[in-house]
């Protein structure tokens, strides 16, 4: 999503036709189209909300490290850290991304895998695709692979849902159909046959201009259309079935089918800030029940089979945004014209000033129980959550890594107070994420420059033992205004921290910093004035996930490899494929790192993609493109099965191109030949046998 792009860059792909009255048209930064700026993040670039932390900006530290690291290029110095897998971690490798039968097989493979070298297992030796131009309206997969659509916007999810009808969209229908702009994706085993699974997807935001016949501008939207968009946000649970391993998944009607929406679903607010004065409203005087979730971006799957979802750009959904609490200023709360208050007045902050404090959380959903009440966990802090990925530490505590996706914001870690069982049962709720310590990362460049690390860091506590660690702020204030607390303790401003995930094989943690073109002042010796292309941060905890110190390195500084400001762990440009704006990170059972992108069209004039990135051994830093998505789309939520040879992704916002409109579409994804609009959806690529 959002806030840091560069004004000199225009969208690579445009459509002929009437231009929308979009505030960012001609002013977009970096990789964004004006449509993206408007519909996804509410023209956030028009407002500034940098961290007030006094710590050196991460990009300055990073560039110093890049300069030092370049001295090491060619030495082949990368070494596998080789952190041992706990039984829980080994199991997580097989269950968190599991697809039915074979979980044990994948866990075994993970334990015995050498680390993240070249693509392994069924992915070994795949023929990279592309580079593919940004205006190609197709899903491109390697030779020897086929792809198909599993489900798309408007398809029935709940059993009594109507079929999609472009001309008869209603809030009631949408609340039972697959939502718009799917992002995070996970597939959880159902039963033991390997033929059934639960697919869970996030629905981040809506593109009204290519959804509704008759759209002219935001003012032209009817209240019913606005409420339909509201219902198109949230999450979906879909049962999928197949004939057996290696066969394509297909969506089926099921009692598990469930929509979670911004308008209809009740959430329980948990943790220390639940019930506080900061989250009470007239409709919820107890401050414990929130209706809806919104802007659900990335996420994670817990070892006990629940799904975490990050409420990201919650700041752009409210009217009359001059909130009385100045601590919300750093969140950039702004009226984006969605007009949800016309159908639900709690989105008018003059009527419900605390409603905005009830979004921006990590959500937990148990997809195995269609009647479960999803939760929002206040112990994990409130910010523009990209996502959260959970793993179990050797002592049984659960650790979640999290990014706050805005230029100059921070990276966080939650460590639970309580422990989970060694073999938590799938789909059984627990309250382990309701209490724990919240940390924020502070990076430094220290140590021996000839060693195999680039810097050190510490996790600075914001809360510990149920108490605030931030002078002048109560526990509730730290959790509701977490950005303020992080700045107060000197957290490191970073280049839009997106997805963060732990490699279940090596134990190292990888974070995608997608870009930060807002930076105008380079650091000393900094070869890259603007970080238009982003980079990947590798973190090695001192001991395990609960450690409070770490070392860090940058295995990949993204861009066109011919650009001297890029860095691919010392590999020559001829051996590397271009990559830009990394967003989601995921691991396969062999420890292979997969990185999906959101911004290659605007930054490299290439289609957004899913890449394999080698993190260890002589190929460390090597990028191989596995697939690309249609014009206007970003690649989201990769689920990579390196045992069976299956790769699933969400195709988010196909056709989101400046100038596109309901009558002038640039994409017809998923190409079903009947519907006149692009429909965001889930695809699966399968290795041909
Ligand atoms: Fe919704 Fe940070 O991407
Ligand atoms: Ca994104
Ligand atoms: Ca994202």
Automatic annotation (TrEMBL):
InterPro entries: PhoX, TAT_signal. It comes from the Bacteria. Residues 1-20, 88-107 are annotated as: Disordered. Residues 1-13 have a biased composition (Polar residues). PROSITE patterns: TAT. Coiled coil: none annotated. This is PhoX family phosphatase. It comes from Pseudokineococcus marinus.
């Amino acid at each position: 999503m959002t806030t840091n792009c560069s004004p000199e860059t225009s969208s690579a792909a445009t459509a002929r036709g009437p231009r929308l009255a979009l505030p960012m048209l001609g002013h977009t930064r970096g990789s964004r189209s004006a449509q993206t700026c408007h519909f996804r993040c509410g023209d956030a670039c028009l407002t500034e909300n940098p961290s007030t932390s006094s710590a050196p900006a991460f990009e300055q530290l990073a560039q110093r490290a890049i300069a030092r690291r370049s001295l090491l290029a060619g030495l082949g110095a990368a070494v596998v850290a080789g952190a041992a897998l706990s039984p829980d971690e080994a199991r997580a490798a097989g269950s968190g991304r599991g697809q039915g039968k074979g979980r044990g097989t994948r866990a075994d493979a993970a334990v015995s895998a050498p680390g993240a070298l070249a693509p392994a297992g069924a992915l070994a030796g795949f023929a990279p695709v592309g580079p593919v131009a940004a205006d190609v309206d197709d899903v491109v997969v390697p030779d020897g692979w086929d792809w198909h659509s599993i489900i798309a916007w408007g398809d029935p999810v709940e059993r009594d849902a109507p079929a999609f009808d472009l001309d008869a969209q209603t809030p009631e229908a949408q609340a039972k159909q697959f939502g718009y702009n799917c992002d995070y994706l996970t597939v959880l085993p159902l039963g033991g046959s390997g033929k059934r699974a639960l697919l869970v997807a996030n629905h981040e935001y809506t593109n009204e201009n290519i959804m509704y016949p008759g759209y002219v501008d935001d003012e032209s939207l009817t209240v019913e259309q606005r409420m339909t968009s509201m219902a198109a946000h949230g999450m979906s649970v879909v049962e999928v079935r197949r004939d057996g391993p290696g066969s394509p998944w297909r969506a089926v009607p099921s009692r598990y089918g469930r929509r979670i929406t911004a308008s209809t679903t009740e959430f329980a607010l948990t943790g220390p800030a639940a019930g506080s004065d900061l989250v009470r409203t007239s409709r919820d005087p107890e401050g414990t029940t929130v209706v809806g979730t919104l802007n659900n971006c990335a996420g994670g799957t817990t070892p006990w089979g629940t799904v975490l979802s990050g409420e990201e750009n919650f700041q752009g959904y409210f009217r009359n945004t001059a909130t009385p609490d100045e601590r919300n200023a750093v969140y950039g709360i702004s009226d984006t014209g969605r007009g949800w208050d016309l159908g639900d007045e709690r989105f008018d902050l003059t009527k419900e000033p605390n409603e905005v404090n009830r979004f921006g959380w990590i959500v937990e959903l148990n997809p195995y129980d269609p009647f479960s009440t999803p939760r929002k966990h206040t112990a994990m802090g409130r910010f523009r959550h990209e996502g959260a990925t959970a793993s179990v530490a050797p002592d049984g505590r659960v650790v979640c890594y999290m990014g706050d996706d805005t230029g100059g914001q921070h990276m966080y870690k939650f460590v639970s107070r309580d422990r989970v069982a060694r073999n938590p049962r799938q789909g059984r709720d627990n309250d382990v994420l309701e209490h724990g310590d919240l940390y924020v990362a502070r990076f430094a460049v220290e140590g021996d420059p000839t060693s195999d690390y680039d810097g050190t860091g510490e996790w600075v506590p914001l809360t510990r033992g149920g108490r605030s660690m931030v002078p002048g702020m109560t526990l509730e204030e730290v959790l509701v205004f977490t950005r303020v607390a992080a700045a107060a303790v000197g957290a490191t401003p970073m280049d839009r921290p997106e997805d963060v995930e732990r490699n279940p094989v090596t134990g190292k943690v990888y974070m995608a910093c997608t870009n930060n073109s807002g930076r105008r002042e380079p650091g000393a010796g900094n070869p890259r004035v603007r970080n238009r292309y982003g980079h990947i941060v590798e973190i090695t905890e001192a001991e395990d996930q609960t450690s409070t110190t770490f070392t860090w390195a940058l295995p990949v500084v993204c861009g066109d490899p011919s650009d001297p400001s890029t860095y691919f762990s010392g590999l020559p440009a001829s051996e590397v494929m271009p990559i830009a704006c990394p967003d989601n990170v995921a691991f396969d059972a062999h420890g292979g790192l997969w990185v999906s992108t959101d911004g290659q069209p605007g930054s490299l004039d290439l289609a957004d993609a899913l890449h394999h990135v080698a993190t260890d051994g002589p190929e460390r830093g090597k990028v191989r493109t596995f697939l690309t998505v249609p014009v206007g789309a970003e690649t989201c939520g990769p689920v990579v099965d390196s045992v069976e040879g299956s790769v699933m992704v969400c195709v988010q916002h196909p056709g989101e191109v400046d100038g596109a409109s309901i009558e002038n579409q640039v994409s017809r994804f998923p190409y079903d030949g009947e519907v006149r609009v692009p429909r965001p959806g889930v695809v699966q690529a399968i290795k041909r046998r």
